[in-house]
Amino acid sequence: MILFRRKNIKIFLNYFLGPLLFLALSYSIYRQIIDQADLAQAWNRIRQSLNSDVIWNFLGVFLFMIINWGIEAVKWKLSVRKIQQVSFSRAFKAVLSGVSFSVGTPNRMGEYLGRILYMDEGNRLKTVSITIVGSISQLIITLLSGVAGLMVLLPEIQAAGMLSPPWGSVLLYGVIAALVVLILFYFRLSWLVKLADRFSGNSRYVYLVRSLEDFDTKILLQLLALSVLRFFVFIIQYFILFRLFDVEVSWWQGFWATSVSFLVLAIIPTFAIADLGMRGKVILGLLGLFSSNVLGITIAAGCIWFINLVIPAIIGSLLILGIKKIFKAKNEKK
């Protein structure tokens, strides 16, 4: 009965609420584009830029997508090495497979489901908690940069009427508090193991978090450093497309606005079908503080979504089909 209810909830979120939210956000963005004062001029400028160096720009963004997921593969390889040694190639395939699983979960929380397929039997469940640690390291960097960006842009955000002063303070200090708690938890993972030992009703499941004790400060700092690299890869991708689609913002403005947009997207739960609309709405609001090119900002956000998420998810789904065939062949031999 519980499983049936969960399945119904998932169907409702993915096939009703998600598409409805996507349509609402898309219509809102469409109205902003239509109301852009110099829409014809903006479209002409974009067409001129597309006729010049579009191929090289898109190749650059695509290359950074590969670098982005390659860094994530290094993170995962580093995280699981105490449980099982995996090659970079295997880790990269696991990461892409995780992307294909994650698109159907809020904020892409289901990444671990695809990754554990590439671990040996007996190691798969233990990998779940380790994968979550890698996600926490990225979340820490996202919150840290987002808080810094919020401190810089809060006057502009409040002046534009996007946040009232009281709510701006609540958001800023709330994120700071969450960040402090998250950092303390991140560097004290052994506490979780002790709590599991003390409060677990069944000691058989403690082994699922026991591997967290292998994370020393050196590994945790390495994961954070790799997360910083991933963050800057995202920023570079956005700037390539901003230049391509004639979004005139300075590096300083674009960096902080994009940082705050990452923070907002990390806080708000979104689903695969609604992610594009939400991403466009958030980045449009923040970049709109400095640029009136609504069309260019929207197209840039859509390209980032497609290149960084859709393409890897398609590749990952093909990899999953391949690994399913391998599992099927093994079972038939048995």
Describe the protein in words:
- The structure is a single chain.
- With 334 residues, the protein is mainly α.
- The chain has one domain (54-326).
- It has 12 helices and no strands.
- Helix 5 (124-159) crosses helix 10 (251-267).
- The longest helix has 42 residues, at 39-80.
- It is globular.
- It starts with a helix and ends with a helix.
- The model is unreliable at 1-9 and 325-329 (pLDDT under 50).
In short:
The chain has one domain (54-326). Helix content is 81%, strand content 0%. It has helices spanning 2-34, 39-80, 88-102, 111-115, 124-159, 165-186, 189-199, 207-210, 217-244, 251-267, 272-287, 294-333.
Which secondary structure elements does this structure contain, and how are they paired or packed?
Layout: H1 2-34, H2 39-80, H3 88-102, H4 111-115, H5 124-159, H6 165-186, H7 189-199, H8 207-210, H9 217-244, H10 251-267, H11 272-287, H12 294-333
Helix pairs in contact: 1-11, 2-3, 2-5, 2-9, 2-12, 3-12, 5-6, 5-9, 5-10, 9-12, 10-11, 11-12
Query: How many domain modules?
Result: 1
Contiguous runs where pLDDT drops below 50 for at least 5 residues: 1-9, 325-329
Give the biggest beta sheet. none
**Can you tell me the overall shape?**
globular
Fraction in helix:
over 70%
**N→C terminal distance:** 34 Å
What Rg, in angstroms, do the CA atoms define? 21 Å
Number of strands: 0
Oligomer: single chain
Number of helices: 12
- Helix and strand content put the structural class at mainly alpha
Would you tell me the overall average pLDDT?
77
Strand content: under 5%
Order of helices and strands: HHHHHHHHHHHH
